[in-house]
Design brief:
- The protein is mainly alpha-helical.
- The protein has a single domain, classed as Globin-like (Orthogonal Bundle).
- The chain is about 65% helix and about 0% strand.
- The chain is built from eight helices and no strands.
- It is globular and about 50 Å long.
């Protein structure tokens, strides 16, 4: 009998190197795209802390080493983002940068679509402003 290994999303995306690349490119796009100015303004001038936290979060969220939890505890994403006014436009800017970064990684198209959908749901969960008023 052979032992079957289940690949995690962390494995499917390309593990640590791929996640580091996605995070670097994500913040590159956030820092340079005029369409991302609103979310860029929510961040410190030095993005190194944000890069580190996003990398650690994505590592665990995708099924790899749970680096964020080890260092900071439970992510409590909504609580941690509550000081920022996040509406649908900010979510869409975040997703624009993330999808551009993900597009640079070679991966199965079905996996890419599922990953993008999961990130979209996560980003939508961060919305804390009603923009209909």
């Amino acid at each position: 009998m052979t032992e079957q290994t289940t690949l995690t999303p962390y494995d499917l995306i390309g593990q640590e190197a791929a996640i580091r690349h996605v995070v670097e490119r994500f913040y590159f796009f956030m820092d340079t795209l005029p369409e991302a100015a609103e979310i860029r303004a929510m961040h410190a001038a030095d993005l190194s802390g944000a890069r580190s936290k996003l990398f650690k979060f994505l590592s665990g969220w995708l099924g790899g080493p749970d680096l964020f939890v080890q260092e900071y505890g439970h992510p409590r994403l909504r609580q941690r983002h509550f000081p920022f006014a996040i509406g649908a436009a900010a979510r869409d800017q975040w997703m624009l940068c993330m999808n551009k970064a993900l597009d640079e990684i070679t991966m199965d198209e079905t996996f890419r679509a599922n990953l993008s959908q999961a990130l979209q749901q996560l980003a939508t969960h961060m919305i804390n402003q009603d923009e209909t008023a």
